[in-house]
Structure formats: C-alpha cells, structure tokens
Amino acid sequence: MEREQTEQLLRSRIEGERFIPTAPPEPDARSALEPPVQPADPLLALPRIERLLTGMSDRLEALTRERQHRDFSLARLIGWVLQFLVVGSAIAAVADWAFQAELGKQLVMLMFAGVFQLGALTAFVLSRE
To answer: Which of 54, 69, 84, 89 has the fewest C-beta atoms under 10 angstroms from its C-beta?
Structure first.
C-alpha cells in the first residue's frame, strides 16, 4: 500500500495535482464467507472442470507409475546378491551338518552367512534413500 501511495504522490506531482492519501479498503468479512459467484449457465463451467479433472488424473497416473517402477539402485542389487549368498551359505551349513562334516566347517559357513546378512541389510538400508 505504501508503494501505491508513493506512486500516486509522484504522479500527482508530475501532473500538478494535489495528492490526498486514502486509507486502504478494509476487507469485508461477509465477502470472505459468501460462496463464489456461480455462472449463469452451469454448462459454461464444464470445460474448466474437465481440464482440472484431467490434470488431476494425469498427475495420479504419473505418481502410480513412479511408485511401481523404482530407479535402478546399485546398493539394492548388491543387497540381493549378498542375500542369495546368505541363503547359499546356510544351505551349505545344513548340508554339512546332514553329512556329518566337521563342526569347524559348519561354524565357518554360518559365520559367512551372518557376515553376508549384515552386508545385505546395510545395502538395503543404503538403497532406501
């Protein structure tokens, strides 16, 4: 408002008129509560509503497509490879137990499985962003 009054003052000085500042109009509380004015013919508003709904639909489709197809993540790939190694190590440890291999070999396979599992979990956490 101050800027508008300054511009009016400058214009009046240039034009040689006398400047009388006016108070800014007070907002009418009732006008904020009144519903917006409806067009006389409701059919005139249909193209605008259709454009808005089409835009909303396009945006929802784009969001759905984004959620369905994640971007490639090297961390997620490493996590899955390590997870398969965990399963393989655990199966090898169970097979060693079933065929009565020495206990040290079984424990080493289970320790490898634990380390691979920690690596897989770390990779999955890093891929979450």
So the answer is: 69
Distance CA 80, CA 114 (A): 15
Q: Is 49 exposed, middle or buried (0-12, 13-18, 19+ CB in 10 A)?
A: exposed
The two three-digit tokens of residue 3, written as one number: 């800027």
Which residue in 127, 99, 96 sits closest to 111, CA to CA? 96
Q: Are 93 and 70 in contact (CB under 8 A)?
A: no
Neighbours of 120 (CB within 10 A): 19
* 79 touches 127 (CB < 8 A): yes
The three-class DSSP label of residue 129 is: coil
* Tokens standing for residue 68: 């369905």
Could you state, in order of their start, the residue ranges of all structural domains in the chain?
A: 74-127
pLDDT single digits (tens) 31-70: 556 666 666 677 777 888 888 999 999 999 988 888 887 7
**pTM, two decimal places:** 0.48
- What are the Cα distances from residue 56, in Å, to 49, 52, 60? 11, 6, 6
Q: What is the pLDDT of residue 115?
A: 95
